[in-house]
Amino acid sequence: MSRTTPDLLASQQSELTAIRRDIHRHPETAFEEQRTSQIVADKLTSWGIEVHRGLATTGVVGTLKGKRAGQKTIGLRADMDALHLQEKNEFDYASSVPNKMHACGHDGHTTMLLGAARHLAKAPDFAGTVHFIFQPAEEGLGGARVMIEEGLFDKFNCDAVYGMHNMPGFPKGHFAIRSGAMLASSDSWEVTFKGTGGHGAMPDRGTDPTYVAAQFIVAVQGIIGRNVVSTQAAVLSVGHISAGTAGSPNVIPSEVLIKGTARSFSPSVRSLLERRLAEVAAGIAQSGGCEAVSKYFRRYPALINAVEQTSIAVEAAALTVGRENVQPNTPPIAGAEDFAYLLEKKPGAYIMIGNGGTEEGGCHNVHSPLYDFNDEILTTGAAYWVNLVQLELGDLIAV
Ligand SMILES: [Zn+2]
Ligand SMILES: [Zn+2]
């Protein structure tokens, strides 16, 4: 078994580009990916791949068994959803749906995995089983978590899981990954400070939650500076404050609501942030004669790549584009991704593929109204998936 280079998949380029642009033109947001999942299911079926539908409403799982006997199973995952955003691109395949847009490249992720499925189905020269997992609702609503809750791994056991995301501004078709924490957990929190409020001229006659809230906002950054271990990274930011009415500046409000985000790269730091936000809020509230009601909402966990699967992913990337084009120890990124839920259950690895800079035909950052996935990396991503499968289940050997 020899490695699969992007050139070997060149005959698929025009078909994959057509699929990608069709999905781009018809973006669908969380749990409503009906048309997209129909395309995915139809393509997989036409290539002789067994299809299961309906996990997390629009999820599709294609199962391909190797022609040689083997017990090992791996899951390869692509996300299918678009964003609520008005596209500003003017090319002919720009979004036809107002305020919806594939601005994160999930159209490309879906297409790259389809390209790999098609290539592997032609000659499944491996031992074991591949599950191609097409999931809805990566953007904010945790489609991966819902697929797990609805029995993804009960129905489709996976010994390891792999994911991939494009990265604008990183050279076209290059790969970047790291072992351990690669993306942050993304949680939100809110604190309501309650006091009596009263006349702005007579603060001595009541308690003032605005004074308490002001101290709290400053003290929050002390959690990062004084409580989080100095070798760990974390972020706490305030994103919303509301109190009083704009027409009554002489009234001390009785309640102040503060909302923010919390990012960290380990479960222990995440728990520390949750605990200390509530403790600091309660302590400062008490000092001002007020009460604090704290809530913390755990959303996406930190994405933590397993050591063994990360090295397999590095080798698959090196076989695809050459070792000199693979960064095996890229710095962590404070963004979040719901593939982390799969990695909480199974060992695996999540890799970034360069979408190129604007000078390389790439585009603006993800979530920009001018973003576009770079079709030139479709066969590179597909070849990576094929090499990964052959390393895990076939005879391909790392060089
Ligand atoms: Zn996104
Ligand atoms: Zn994304």
Features:
399 residues, alpha/beta, four-stranded antiparallel β-sheet, 33% helix, binds zinc ion
Can you put this structure into words, describing what you see?
With 399 residues, the protein is an alpha/beta fold. 33% of the residues lie in helices and 26% in strands. It is built from 10 helices and 16 strands. The chain has helices at 13-25, 34-46, 106-122, 143-149, 152-155, 209-227, 267-287, 307-321, 339-345, 378-393; strands at residues 50-53, 60-65, 68-79, 127-135, 160-168, 175-176, 180-183, 185-194, 198-199, 234-243, 251-252, 255-264, 291-300, 303-305, 326-327, 348-356. The strands form 4 sheets. The chain has an 8-stranded mixed beta sheet with strand order 1-2-4-3-5-16-6-15, sandwiched between helices. It has a 4-stranded antiparallel beta sheet with strand order 10-12-8-13, covered by helices on one side. Strands 7-14 form a two-stranded antiparallel ribbon. One zinc ion binds next to loops.
